[in-house]
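Reopening closed ticket. The problem is back. First fold of the pair:
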Amino acid sequence: MNNTSICKKCGAPIVWLDTPRGRKMPADAALRAYKENPEGKNSVLNDLGEVIKCDLRFEGTPTGMGRIPHWATCPNADDFRRRKGGR
């Protein structure tokens, strides 16, 4: 189930997606078209919470629609990263 909220650090709308391992991962609320590419420089999350390597700029038909992990776009993402020895 998707839970919508606001990022505590930057105020952007985010969606919490359940990952295959049962964890919650924040993603940007906006859906983006992508073309799957194992060598791609971008990643998106599908509605199953799976991370997919892809291109966000491409020609032709998209592979699907996904959400960009919020850690990739949040200007304050480092504030959430765990450090060695705890937070």
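Second fold of the pair, where the issue appears:
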Amino acid sequence: MFLLKRDYSNKNFIIKGLITSILLSSFIYLSYFNIEYKILNTFLGLFAIYFLLIIPKRSLLITGFLTGILWCNWMAVSLQYYDLTYIAPILLIGIGLVYAIIFYLFAFYDRLTIRIAMIFAFTFFAPLGFNWMKFELLFIDSYIGISKTDFALILFSFYLIIKLKKHKIVALIPLLFTLTFEKGEYIDNPIAKIYMPQMNVEQNLKWQKEYRTTLHEKNFEEIAKAVEMKKDLILLPETAFTTVLNRNAEILERLKDFSNDIDIITGALYVEDDQIFNASYFFSKGEIQIAKKVVLVPFGEEIPFPKFLVDFINKVFYNGAQDYSKASKPTDFIIKGEKFRNAICYEGTTDKIFEDIKDTRYMIVISNNAWFTPSIEPTLQHLLFKYYSKKYGITIFHEVNGSPNRIYRP
């Protein structure tokens, strides 16, 4: 009888951990399949946070491990382009273990108040510099607000539900203050008429020398098309030109010539003083402005470890390649007299790129998602841009290679 009871108990804590991880991740996969019902996401999100507060301490290990994999499995997709597919299982297990430990720490001292405090503290924490797991994101397509205050009220409400023995209806009052009902989308268009071509260049072709001329000519065809359409600005994706653009005089001159008819923003590499930058190039009236990336992708563009480990990892896994360098502050472009904040892919989903942006209403983000397709990465990125657009009241124009272009409005 004791063995049967213990076996049932073991299965029970695993099942609770599994259910909680599914609830925490469901909004991503529903969005992936274009299932976005606010009422459904509201209840799934609330149940996810409630379960996170009440499941046994050891269930949190299961929840963290599975949630880490469900949110971050797309990271393994890019390994094929480094000939590192064989380490995909190790990477996924490593990600799962990192989040298993973090979730277990939510209840390191297993009292409800401590667990609530730790979960709220996690909303300010980015493991190894990677900040895409945000619990507030569960409510991005729901009737619940996405601010820190809203999340604190949700936790307080659940605290009351768990602790009150009578009059539990009172516990729902804090939740009422988190409700949000949008009356409609306010369309705030810039003066510039923007052309955003949809690019779908496969990553295995993108950097092949034989394909480079074809790729670059496709870019110029899109620019010519934008001129014919009488647009003011064309956006091209991250590394649309697969060259160190500031050292390619021929392409620079062609872009300068076109910029007398239309403003151009395109991604390409930039090299200065033996430092490599992922950059945006802004061409206007024959002039060039460079915006270097400020926030680099952990493990993709920089290794967030001490230098001796960085050198070792780059030598073993990246054939001795060096990390990218980064700028100290964001760059703004002035287009038709209006200010546009520049961002390149990952940095558009970080708070740092929104620093000192009070007088800026627009942001241009360029990305290359071909690294991660097919996967949930474009979906998670899409949800994050929704979140940051609302958080900062900024209209975001997202030009992408490998997934749909989108415009996000507050």
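Update: turned out to be a display glitch only; the data is intact. Residues 1-8 have pLDDT under 50 and may be disordered. DSSP finds twelve helices and ten strands in the chain. Please close again.
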